[in-house]
Amino acid sequence: MNKILPTAIQGTLLMWSLMLGCQNVDAQDADAPNIIFIMTDDHSYQTLSAYQDHLIETPNLDRIAHEGVLFSNSFVSNSICAPSRAVLLTGKHSHLNGQIDNRVRFDSTQNTFVKELQAGGYQTAVIGKWHLKSQPMGFDHYEVLIGQGNYYNSDFIENGERVRSEGYVTDVITDKSLGWIEQRNEEKPFCLLLHHKATHRIWMPDTTLFQEFEGVEFPVPSTFFDDYSGRQAAAEQEMSIANHMDLVWDNKMLDSAGTVQTQLRDPYENRMYSRMDPDQKAAWDKYYDPLIKEFTESDLTGKELALWKYQRYMNDYLKCVRSVDNNVGRVLDYLDEAGLAENTILVYTSDQGFYMGEHGWFDKRFMYEESFRTPLVMRWPAQVEPGGFIEEMVQNIDHAPTLLDLVGLPIPEDMQGESMKPLLLKQPVDWRNELYYHYYEFPGAHAVKKHYGIRTEHHKLIHFYDHIDQWEFYDLQKDSVEMNNLIDDPGYQEIIKDLRIRLTALREKYQVGEG
Predict the structure, then answer these.
(1) Domains, the chain, ranges and CATH?
(2) pLDDT per position as a tens digit, 146-178
(3) CA 498 to CA 387: how far, in whole Å?
Protein backbone atom coordinates (compact mmCIF):
# COMPACT_ATOMS: atom_id res chain seq x y z
CA MET A 1 0.00 0.00 0.00
CA ASN A 2 1.39 3.42 -0.92
CA LYS A 3 2.06 5.93 1.82
CA ILE A 4 -0.30 8.88 2.09
CA LEU A 5 1.17 11.87 0.22
CA PRO A 6 1.04 15.46 1.50
CA THR A 7 -2.31 17.08 0.73
CA ALA A 8 -0.91 19.61 -1.75
CA ILE A 9 0.80 16.91 -3.78
CA GLN A 10 -2.31 14.73 -3.65
CA GLY A 11 -4.39 17.55 -5.05
CA THR A 12 -1.94 18.16 -7.88
CA LEU A 13 -1.81 14.49 -8.82
CA LEU A 14 -5.59 14.24 -8.75
CA MET A 15 -5.96 17.28 -10.99
CA TRP A 16 -3.51 15.95 -13.55
CA SER A 17 -5.01 12.46 -13.56
CA LEU A 18 -8.48 13.83 -14.21
CA MET A 19 -7.20 16.14 -16.96
CA LEU A 20 -5.50 13.23 -18.65
CA GLY A 21 -8.64 11.10 -18.31
CA CYS A 22 -6.70 8.20 -16.83
CA GLN A 23 -8.31 8.22 -13.36
CA ASN A 24 -5.10 7.20 -11.57
CA VAL A 25 -6.57 8.43 -8.30
CA ASP A 26 -4.79 7.42 -5.09
CA ALA A 27 -7.66 5.84 -3.17
CA GLN A 28 -6.13 7.03 0.10
CA ASP A 29 -6.57 10.63 -1.01
CA ALA A 30 -9.33 12.47 0.87
CA ASP A 31 -10.30 13.98 -2.51
CA ALA A 32 -10.94 10.59 -4.09
CA PRO A 33 -14.63 10.00 -4.83
CA ASN A 34 -16.91 8.47 -2.25
CA ILE A 35 -19.28 5.66 -3.24
CA ILE A 36 -22.84 5.07 -2.07
CA PHE A 37 -24.34 1.97 -3.67
CA ILE A 38 -28.07 1.79 -2.94
CA MET A 39 -29.66 -1.54 -3.78
CA THR A 40 -33.26 -2.46 -3.15
CA ASP A 41 -34.80 -5.90 -3.34
CA ASP A 42 -37.20 -6.86 -6.13
CA HIS A 43 -37.77 -3.29 -7.33
CA SER A 44 -39.19 -3.52 -10.83
CA TYR A 45 -38.11 -1.03 -13.48
CA GLN A 46 -41.83 -0.68 -14.28
CA THR A 47 -42.27 1.13 -10.96
CA LEU A 48 -39.47 3.69 -11.27
CA SER A 49 -41.01 6.59 -13.14
CA ALA A 50 -37.83 7.56 -14.99
CA TYR A 51 -38.57 4.34 -16.93
CA GLN A 52 -42.38 4.21 -16.79
CA ASP A 53 -44.73 6.57 -14.99
CA HIS A 54 -48.13 4.91 -15.40
CA LEU A 55 -48.01 3.20 -11.98
CA ILE A 56 -46.13 5.59 -9.67
CA GLU A 57 -44.10 8.79 -9.62
CA THR A 58 -40.67 8.42 -7.97
CA PRO A 59 -39.26 11.97 -7.93
CA ASN A 60 -36.20 11.26 -5.81
CA LEU A 61 -35.08 8.25 -7.82
CA ASP A 62 -35.79 10.21 -10.99
CA ARG A 63 -33.58 12.99 -9.66
CA ILE A 64 -30.57 10.65 -9.74
CA ALA A 65 -31.28 9.95 -13.41
CA HIS A 66 -31.82 13.62 -14.26
CA GLU A 67 -28.62 14.66 -12.49
CA GLY A 68 -26.70 11.68 -13.79
CA VAL A 69 -27.48 8.87 -16.21
CA LEU A 70 -30.18 6.27 -16.76
CA PHE A 71 -29.29 2.86 -18.17
CA SER A 72 -32.15 1.75 -20.39
CA ASN A 73 -30.83 -1.79 -20.83
CA SER A 74 -29.65 -2.96 -17.41
CA PHE A 75 -29.87 -6.70 -16.67
CA VAL A 76 -28.92 -9.31 -14.07
CA SER A 77 -27.14 -12.61 -14.57
CA ASN A 78 -29.32 -14.72 -12.23
CA SER A 79 -32.61 -13.23 -11.07
CA ILE A 80 -32.70 -14.18 -7.40
CA CYS A 81 -31.61 -12.39 -4.23
CA ALA A 82 -28.44 -13.96 -2.81
CA PRO A 83 -26.81 -14.74 -6.17
CA SER A 84 -27.31 -11.15 -7.33
CA ARG A 85 -25.57 -9.86 -4.20
CA ALA A 86 -22.65 -12.23 -4.73
CA VAL A 87 -22.35 -11.14 -8.36
CA LEU A 88 -22.28 -7.49 -7.27
CA LEU A 89 -19.46 -8.14 -4.81
CA THR A 90 -17.29 -10.40 -6.96
CA GLY A 91 -17.93 -9.28 -10.55
CA LYS A 92 -18.29 -12.97 -11.43
CA HIS A 93 -21.17 -15.13 -12.63
CA SER A 94 -22.83 -17.38 -10.07
CA HIS A 95 -21.08 -20.61 -11.03
CA LEU A 96 -17.66 -19.05 -10.32
CA ASN A 97 -18.46 -17.15 -7.12
CA GLY A 98 -20.29 -20.24 -5.81
CA GLN A 99 -23.59 -18.52 -4.93
CA ILE A 100 -25.78 -20.26 -7.48
CA ASP A 101 -28.99 -19.98 -5.42
CA ASN A 102 -30.43 -18.78 -2.11
CA ARG A 103 -29.65 -22.03 -0.31
CA VAL A 104 -25.86 -22.11 -0.32
CA ARG A 105 -23.57 -20.07 1.94
CA PHE A 106 -21.48 -17.34 0.32
CA ASP A 107 -17.73 -17.81 0.62
CA SER A 108 -16.91 -14.34 1.94
CA THR A 109 -13.20 -15.13 2.04
CA GLN A 110 -13.02 -14.70 -1.75
CA ASN A 111 -11.98 -11.40 -3.25
CA THR A 112 -14.55 -8.62 -3.73
CA PHE A 113 -14.46 -5.08 -5.00
CA VAL A 114 -15.06 -3.93 -1.41
CA LYS A 115 -11.88 -5.67 -0.26
CA GLU A 116 -10.00 -4.01 -3.10
CA LEU A 117 -11.35 -0.62 -2.02
CA GLN A 118 -10.49 -1.29 1.60
CA ALA A 119 -6.93 -2.27 0.67
CA GLY A 120 -6.74 0.88 -1.43
CA GLY A 121 -7.49 3.14 1.52
CA TYR A 122 -11.29 3.30 1.56
CA GLN A 123 -13.36 2.97 4.71
CA THR A 124 -16.15 0.53 3.92
CA ALA A 125 -19.56 -0.36 5.34
CA VAL A 126 -22.63 -2.40 4.48
CA ILE A 127 -25.93 -1.54 6.14
CA GLY A 128 -29.23 -3.33 5.50
CA LYS A 129 -29.87 -6.56 3.69
CA TRP A 130 -26.94 -8.97 3.33
CA HIS A 131 -28.70 -12.33 2.81
CA LEU A 132 -25.50 -14.28 2.17
CA LYS A 133 -25.43 -16.28 5.46
CA SER A 134 -21.69 -15.81 5.98
CA GLN A 135 -20.15 -12.98 7.98
CA PRO A 136 -19.49 -9.85 5.89
CA MET A 137 -15.78 -9.44 5.16
CA GLY A 138 -13.94 -6.47 3.74
CA PHE A 139 -16.09 -4.03 5.72
CA ASP A 140 -14.88 -1.77 8.50
CA HIS A 141 -18.47 -1.65 9.74
CA TYR A 142 -21.56 -3.72 9.11
CA GLU A 143 -25.14 -3.68 10.35
CA VAL A 144 -27.04 -6.32 8.44
CA LEU A 145 -30.46 -7.86 8.65
CA ILE A 146 -30.80 -11.48 9.69
CA GLY A 147 -31.90 -13.35 6.59
CA GLN A 148 -34.64 -11.38 4.86
CA GLY A 149 -35.21 -9.21 7.91
CA ASN A 150 -38.60 -7.78 8.86
CA TYR A 151 -40.45 -4.65 7.84
CA TYR A 152 -41.17 -3.75 11.47
CA ASN A 153 -38.77 -3.68 14.44
CA SER A 154 -36.20 -5.85 12.73
CA ASP A 155 -33.09 -7.39 14.30
CA PHE A 156 -29.67 -6.49 12.90
CA ILE A 157 -26.25 -8.04 13.36
CA GLU A 158 -24.03 -5.06 14.19
CA ASN A 159 -20.36 -6.03 13.90
CA GLY A 160 -21.17 -9.45 15.35
CA GLU A 161 -23.76 -8.40 17.95
CA ARG A 162 -27.53 -8.89 17.58
CA VAL A 163 -29.45 -5.63 18.05
CA ARG A 164 -33.20 -4.92 17.82
CA SER A 165 -33.93 -1.72 15.91
CA GLU A 166 -37.37 -0.23 16.49
CA GLY A 167 -39.23 1.31 13.58
CA TYR A 168 -39.97 0.78 9.92
CA VAL A 169 -37.05 -0.98 8.26
CA THR A 170 -36.58 1.36 5.28
CA ASP A 171 -36.37 4.35 7.63
CA VAL A 172 -34.10 2.46 10.04
CA ILE A 173 -31.61 1.43 7.34
CA THR A 174 -31.43 5.01 6.12
CA ASP A 175 -30.97 6.30 9.69
CA LYS A 176 -28.12 3.88 10.29
CA SER A 177 -26.50 4.71 6.95
CA LEU A 178 -26.57 8.47 7.42
CA GLY A 179 -25.34 7.99 10.99
CA TRP A 180 -22.35 6.01 9.76
CA ILE A 181 -21.47 8.62 7.13
CA GLU A 182 -21.74 11.34 9.77
CA GLN A 183 -19.23 9.66 12.09
CA ARG A 184 -16.82 8.49 9.39
CA ASN A 185 -13.16 9.47 9.20
CA GLU A 186 -13.36 12.56 7.00
CA GLU A 187 -9.71 12.19 6.00
CA LYS A 188 -10.49 9.08 3.96
CA PRO A 189 -12.94 8.33 1.14
CA PHE A 190 -15.73 5.90 1.91
CA CYS A 191 -17.79 3.20 0.23
CA LEU A 192 -21.21 2.45 1.69
CA LEU A 193 -23.45 -0.37 0.48
CA LEU A 194 -26.92 0.81 1.52
CA HIS A 195 -29.11 -2.25 0.93
CA HIS A 196 -32.84 -2.02 1.58
CA LYS A 197 -35.14 -4.91 2.41
CA ALA A 198 -37.92 -3.27 0.44
CA THR A 199 -39.55 -4.04 -1.91
CA HIS A 200 -39.32 -7.73 -1.06
CA ARG A 201 -42.35 -9.89 -0.36
CA ILE A 202 -44.58 -9.54 1.75
CA TRP A 203 -44.79 -5.83 0.99
CA MET A 204 -45.77 -4.46 4.40
CA PRO A 205 -46.25 -0.70 4.00
CA ASP A 206 -45.23 1.97 6.47
CA THR A 207 -48.26 2.93 8.60
CA THR A 208 -47.67 6.58 7.68
CA LEU A 209 -48.33 5.81 3.99
CA PHE A 210 -51.66 4.01 4.20
CA GLN A 211 -53.52 6.74 2.34
CA GLU A 212 -51.20 6.56 -0.67
CA PHE A 213 -52.91 5.16 -3.79
CA GLU A 214 -56.30 4.94 -2.12
CA GLY A 215 -59.03 4.86 -4.74
CA VAL A 216 -56.51 4.11 -7.50
CA GLU A 217 -57.42 1.35 -9.96
CA PHE A 218 -54.17 0.02 -11.35
CA PRO A 219 -54.08 -0.95 -15.04
CA VAL A 220 -54.07 -4.69 -15.61
CA PRO A 221 -51.23 -5.94 -17.86
CA SER A 222 -52.33 -7.23 -21.24
CA THR A 223 -50.69 -10.58 -20.45
CA PHE A 224 -52.35 -11.01 -17.03
CA PHE A 225 -54.47 -13.97 -18.19
CA ASP A 226 -51.66 -15.61 -20.17
CA ASP A 227 -52.41 -19.29 -20.91
CA TYR A 228 -48.67 -20.06 -21.51
CA SER A 229 -49.34 -21.70 -24.86
CA GLY A 230 -46.14 -23.15 -26.32
CA ARG A 231 -44.17 -22.45 -23.12
CA GLN A 232 -44.12 -25.48 -20.83
CA ALA A 233 -41.76 -23.98 -18.22
CA ALA A 234 -43.89 -20.86 -17.91
CA ALA A 235 -46.98 -22.98 -17.41
CA GLU A 236 -45.44 -25.08 -14.62
CA GLN A 237 -44.28 -22.26 -12.28
CA GLU A 238 -45.80 -21.55 -8.86
CA MET A 239 -45.81 -17.74 -8.81
CA SER A 240 -49.28 -17.01 -10.13
CA ILE A 241 -51.23 -14.21 -8.48
CA ALA A 242 -54.43 -16.18 -9.05
CA ASN A 243 -53.20 -19.53 -7.72
CA HIS A 244 -50.18 -18.94 -5.50
CA MET A 245 -50.52 -15.51 -3.90
CA ASP A 246 -51.56 -16.14 -0.29
CA LEU A 247 -54.60 -14.17 0.89
CA VAL A 248 -53.18 -13.69 4.38
CA TRP A 249 -49.40 -13.71 3.90
CA ASP A 250 -49.47 -11.55 0.78
CA ASN A 251 -52.82 -9.75 0.85
CA LYS A 252 -53.00 -9.23 4.66
CA MET A 253 -56.50 -10.72 5.06
CA LEU A 254 -55.94 -11.81 8.68
CA ASP A 255 -59.54 -11.86 9.90
CA SER A 256 -60.18 -12.12 13.63
CA ALA A 257 -62.86 -14.79 13.10
CA GLY A 258 -60.33 -17.10 11.47
CA THR A 259 -62.47 -17.81 8.40
CA VAL A 260 -59.67 -16.96 5.97
CA GLN A 261 -57.50 -20.03 6.45
CA THR A 262 -54.44 -20.23 4.21
CA GLN A 263 -51.16 -22.11 4.16
CA LEU A 264 -49.24 -19.04 5.33
CA ARG A 265 -51.70 -17.58 7.81
CA ASP A 266 -49.75 -18.71 10.87
CA PRO A 267 -46.32 -17.33 9.86
CA TYR A 268 -47.92 -14.02 8.91
CA GLU A 269 -49.74 -13.72 12.24
CA ASN A 270 -46.91 -14.95 14.45
CA ARG A 271 -43.81 -13.77 12.61
CA MET A 272 -44.80 -10.59 10.81
CA TYR A 273 -47.88 -9.03 12.39
CA SER A 274 -46.76 -9.98 15.90
CA ARG A 275 -43.53 -7.94 15.59
CA MET A 276 -45.43 -4.67 15.56
CA ASP A 277 -45.76 -2.67 18.75
CA PRO A 278 -49.23 -1.67 20.05
CA ASP A 279 -49.28 1.67 18.23
CA GLN A 280 -48.19 0.09 14.96
CA LYS A 281 -50.81 -2.66 15.31
CA ALA A 282 -53.52 -0.11 16.06
CA ALA A 283 -52.71 1.83 12.89
CA TRP A 284 -52.41 -1.41 10.91
CA ASP A 285 -55.78 -2.74 12.10
CA LYS A 286 -57.51 0.59 11.52
CA TYR A 287 -56.50 0.41 7.87
CA TYR A 288 -56.81 -3.31 7.10
CA ASP A 289 -59.85 -4.32 9.16
CA PRO A 290 -62.34 -2.57 6.84
CA LEU A 291 -60.62 -4.16 3.83
CA ILE A 292 -60.83 -7.58 5.48
CA LYS A 293 -64.52 -7.09 6.25
CA GLU A 294 -65.26 -6.02 2.68
CA PHE A 295 -63.33 -8.97 1.28
CA THR A 296 -64.90 -11.65 3.48
CA GLU A 297 -68.36 -10.39 2.54
CA SER A 298 -67.63 -10.26 -1.19
CA ASP A 299 -67.19 -14.04 -1.76
CA LEU A 300 -65.01 -13.48 -4.83
CA THR A 301 -63.92 -16.39 -7.04
CA GLY A 302 -62.18 -17.04 -10.33
CA LYS A 303 -61.04 -14.08 -12.41
CA GLU A 304 -62.68 -11.58 -10.05
CA LEU A 305 -60.64 -12.91 -7.14
CA ALA A 306 -57.43 -12.86 -9.20
CA LEU A 307 -58.01 -9.24 -10.18
CA TRP A 308 -58.81 -8.27 -6.57
CA LYS A 309 -55.56 -9.89 -5.39
CA TYR A 310 -53.68 -8.02 -8.11
CA GLN A 311 -55.04 -4.65 -6.98
CA ARG A 312 -54.19 -5.35 -3.32
CA TYR A 313 -50.71 -6.52 -4.31
CA MET A 314 -50.05 -3.39 -6.33
CA ASN A 315 -51.35 -1.13 -3.58
CA ASP A 316 -49.07 -2.62 -0.90
CA TYR A 317 -46.05 -3.01 -3.18
CA LEU A 318 -46.17 0.58 -4.41
CA LYS A 319 -46.40 1.93 -0.88
CA CYS A 320 -43.12 0.13 -0.20
CA VAL A 321 -41.68 1.79 -3.31
CA ARG A 322 -42.90 5.14 -2.01
CA SER A 323 -41.01 4.60 1.25
CA VAL A 324 -37.84 3.76 -0.70
CA ASP A 325 -38.20 6.88 -2.81
CA ASN A 326 -38.77 9.06 0.25
CA ASN A 327 -35.67 7.66 1.93
CA VAL A 328 -33.53 8.07 -1.18
CA GLY A 329 -34.64 11.70 -1.00
CA ARG A 330 -33.27 11.85 2.54
CA VAL A 331 -29.88 10.58 1.31
CA LEU A 332 -29.80 13.11 -1.53
CA ASP A 333 -30.68 15.96 0.83
CA TYR A 334 -28.01 14.86 3.29
CA LEU A 335 -25.33 14.76 0.61
CA ASP A 336 -26.27 18.29 -0.46
CA GLU A 337 -26.27 19.64 3.09
CA ALA A 338 -22.98 17.92 3.97
CA GLY A 339 -21.24 19.14 0.82
CA LEU A 340 -20.66 15.57 -0.36
CA ALA A 341 -22.87 15.44 -3.45
CA GLU A 342 -20.34 16.69 -6.00
CA ASN A 343 -17.72 14.02 -5.44
CA THR A 344 -19.85 11.03 -4.46
CA ILE A 345 -20.57 8.27 -6.96
CA LEU A 346 -24.18 7.40 -6.23
CA VAL A 347 -25.68 4.23 -7.69
CA TYR A 348 -29.27 3.05 -7.41
CA THR A 349 -30.33 -0.40 -8.59
CA SER A 350 -32.21 -3.51 -7.52
CA ASP A 351 -30.96 -7.06 -7.11
CA GLN A 352 -33.31 -8.02 -9.93
CA GLY A 353 -36.55 -7.08 -11.60
CA PHE A 354 -40.04 -8.21 -10.63
CA TYR A 355 -43.41 -9.08 -12.14
CA MET A 356 -46.17 -6.53 -11.70
CA GLY A 357 -48.85 -8.93 -12.90
CA GLU A 358 -47.30 -9.57 -16.30
CA HIS A 359 -48.10 -13.17 -17.32
CA GLY A 360 -50.30 -13.23 -14.21
CA TRP A 361 -47.23 -13.32 -11.95
CA PHE A 362 -45.45 -11.88 -8.97
CA ASP A 363 -41.81 -12.77 -8.08
CA LYS A 364 -38.86 -13.07 -10.53
CA ARG A 365 -36.41 -15.92 -11.55
CA PHE A 366 -37.27 -16.23 -15.25
CA MET A 367 -35.10 -14.85 -18.04
CA TYR A 368 -38.16 -13.05 -19.38
CA GLU A 369 -37.76 -9.29 -19.51
CA GLU A 370 -39.58 -8.18 -16.35
CA SER A 371 -37.29 -10.15 -14.02
CA PHE A 372 -34.17 -10.13 -16.22
CA ARG A 373 -34.14 -6.32 -16.39
CA THR A 374 -33.35 -4.18 -13.38
CA PRO A 375 -33.38 -0.42 -12.85
CA LEU A 376 -30.02 1.34 -12.85
CA VAL A 377 -29.34 5.05 -12.41
CA MET A 378 -26.00 6.62 -11.48
CA ARG A 379 -24.80 10.10 -10.55
CA TRP A 380 -21.33 11.62 -10.10
CA PRO A 381 -21.57 15.39 -10.61
CA ALA A 382 -17.79 15.87 -10.57
CA GLN A 383 -17.32 13.72 -13.68
CA VAL A 384 -20.57 12.55 -15.27
CA GLU A 385 -22.68 14.95 -17.34
CA PRO A 386 -26.33 15.16 -16.22
CA GLY A 387 -29.28 13.86 -18.19
CA GLY A 388 -27.41 10.99 -19.83
CA PHE A 389 -29.16 8.02 -21.41
CA ILE A 390 -27.10 4.85 -21.92
CA GLU A 391 -28.59 2.26 -24.27
CA GLU A 392 -25.79 -0.32 -24.23
CA MET A 393 -26.60 -3.62 -22.50
CA VAL A 394 -25.01 -3.70 -19.06
CA GLN A 395 -25.24 -6.41 -16.41
CA ASN A 396 -24.71 -6.70 -12.67
CA ILE A 397 -21.35 -8.42 -13.23
CA ASP A 398 -20.21 -4.96 -14.39
CA HIS A 399 -20.71 -3.10 -11.10
CA ALA A 400 -17.55 -4.30 -9.34
CA PRO A 401 -15.09 -3.51 -12.15
CA THR A 402 -16.83 -0.20 -12.85
CA LEU A 403 -16.51 1.11 -9.31
CA LEU A 404 -12.85 0.08 -9.08
CA ASP A 405 -12.11 1.69 -12.44
CA LEU A 406 -13.89 4.93 -11.56
CA VAL A 407 -11.73 5.46 -8.47
CA GLY A 408 -8.52 4.51 -10.23
CA LEU A 409 -7.90 1.07 -8.73
CA PRO A 410 -6.90 -1.91 -10.90
CA ILE A 411 -9.56 -4.43 -11.87
CA PRO A 412 -8.67 -8.01 -10.83
CA GLU A 413 -8.15 -10.23 -13.86
CA ASP A 414 -10.69 -12.82 -12.68
CA MET A 415 -13.61 -10.38 -12.67
CA GLN A 416 -15.85 -11.24 -15.61
CA GLY A 417 -17.70 -7.95 -15.92
CA GLU A 418 -16.76 -4.92 -17.98
CA SER A 419 -16.11 -1.42 -16.65
CA MET A 420 -18.93 0.97 -17.56
CA LYS A 421 -16.59 3.94 -17.10
CA PRO A 422 -16.27 4.62 -20.87
CA LEU A 423 -20.06 4.67 -21.17
CA LEU A 424 -20.39 7.05 -18.23
CA LEU A 425 -17.64 9.41 -19.42
CA LYS A 426 -18.61 9.18 -23.11
CA GLN A 427 -15.32 7.62 -24.14
CA PRO A 428 -14.95 5.36 -27.21
CA VAL A 429 -15.50 1.70 -26.38
CA ASP A 430 -16.21 -1.54 -28.22
CA TRP A 431 -19.12 -2.71 -26.06
CA ARG A 432 -20.77 -6.14 -25.82
CA ASN A 433 -23.75 -7.03 -28.00
CA GLU A 434 -24.99 -10.08 -26.08
CA LEU A 435 -25.70 -11.20 -22.50
CA TYR A 436 -25.54 -14.52 -20.69
CA TYR A 437 -28.10 -15.59 -18.06
CA HIS A 438 -28.31 -18.68 -15.84
CA TYR A 439 -30.87 -19.62 -13.18
CA TYR A 440 -30.17 -22.69 -10.98
CA GLU A 441 -32.68 -22.99 -8.11
CA PHE A 442 -34.88 -25.97 -8.92
CA PRO A 443 -36.44 -27.70 -7.11
CA GLY A 444 -37.17 -24.62 -5.06
CA ALA A 445 -39.57 -21.82 -4.23
CA HIS A 446 -41.96 -21.00 -7.09
CA ALA A 447 -40.85 -24.07 -9.08
CA VAL A 448 -39.11 -22.18 -11.89
CA LYS A 449 -37.06 -24.66 -13.91
CA LYS A 450 -33.30 -24.33 -14.36
CA HIS A 451 -32.43 -22.44 -17.49
CA TYR A 452 -29.77 -20.45 -19.26
CA GLY A 453 -29.79 -18.30 -22.34
CA ILE A 454 -28.53 -15.48 -24.50
CA ARG A 455 -30.05 -12.09 -25.20
CA THR A 456 -29.03 -9.78 -28.03
CA GLU A 457 -30.51 -6.42 -28.98
CA HIS A 458 -33.43 -7.98 -30.83
CA HIS A 459 -33.60 -11.68 -29.90
CA LYS A 460 -33.56 -14.08 -26.98
CA LEU A 461 -32.83 -17.82 -26.84
CA ILE A 462 -33.51 -19.79 -23.63
CA HIS A 463 -32.80 -23.42 -22.76
CA PHE A 464 -34.77 -24.98 -19.87
CA TYR A 465 -32.94 -28.12 -18.77
CA ASP A 466 -32.64 -31.02 -16.31
CA HIS A 467 -36.28 -31.60 -15.31
CA ILE A 468 -37.44 -30.63 -18.77
CA ASP A 469 -35.61 -30.07 -22.05
CA GLN A 470 -37.26 -27.16 -23.80
CA TRP A 471 -35.96 -24.32 -25.96
CA GLU A 472 -37.64 -20.94 -26.39
CA PHE A 473 -36.90 -18.19 -28.88
CA TYR A 474 -38.36 -14.68 -28.99
CA ASP A 475 -38.24 -11.87 -31.50
CA LEU A 476 -38.17 -8.96 -29.06
CA GLN A 477 -38.87 -6.38 -31.74
CA LYS A 478 -42.17 -7.98 -32.73
CA ASP A 479 -43.03 -9.59 -29.38
CA SER A 480 -41.70 -7.47 -26.52
CA VAL A 481 -44.01 -9.21 -24.01
CA GLU A 482 -42.68 -12.67 -24.95
CA MET A 483 -45.91 -14.50 -25.65
CA ASN A 484 -44.90 -16.28 -28.86
CA ASN A 485 -42.24 -18.97 -28.67
CA LEU A 486 -40.89 -19.15 -32.24
CA ILE A 487 -38.36 -21.92 -31.70
CA ASP A 488 -39.88 -24.04 -34.48
CA ASP A 489 -40.74 -21.19 -36.85
CA PRO A 490 -39.09 -21.91 -40.25
CA GLY A 491 -38.46 -18.21 -40.83
CA TYR A 492 -36.13 -17.91 -37.84
CA GLN A 493 -33.99 -21.05 -38.09
CA GLU A 494 -30.87 -19.26 -39.34
CA ILE A 495 -31.06 -16.72 -36.51
CA ILE A 496 -31.63 -19.51 -33.97
CA LYS A 497 -28.67 -21.47 -35.35
CA ASP A 498 -26.45 -18.41 -34.99
CA LEU A 499 -27.69 -17.79 -31.43
CA ARG A 500 -26.93 -21.39 -30.42
CA ILE A 501 -23.35 -20.94 -31.63
CA ARG A 502 -23.02 -17.64 -29.80
CA LEU A 503 -24.54 -19.10 -26.64
CA THR A 504 -21.98 -21.93 -26.67
CA ALA A 505 -19.22 -19.37 -27.09
CA LEU A 506 -20.52 -17.32 -24.17
CA ARG A 507 -20.59 -20.39 -21.93
CA GLU A 508 -16.97 -21.10 -22.88
CA LYS A 509 -16.00 -17.46 -22.30
CA TYR A 510 -17.54 -17.44 -18.83
CA GLN A 511 -16.23 -20.94 -18.00
CA VAL A 512 -19.67 -22.36 -17.30
CA GLY A 513 -18.85 -26.01 -17.81
CA GLU A 514 -21.59 -28.65 -17.79
CA GLY A 515 -25.21 -27.95 -16.82
Answers:
(1) 1-27 (no CATH), 28-203+316-430 (3.40.720.10), 227-314 (no CATH), 437-509 (3.30.1120.10)
(2) 999 999 999 999 999 999 999 999 999 999 999
(3) 36
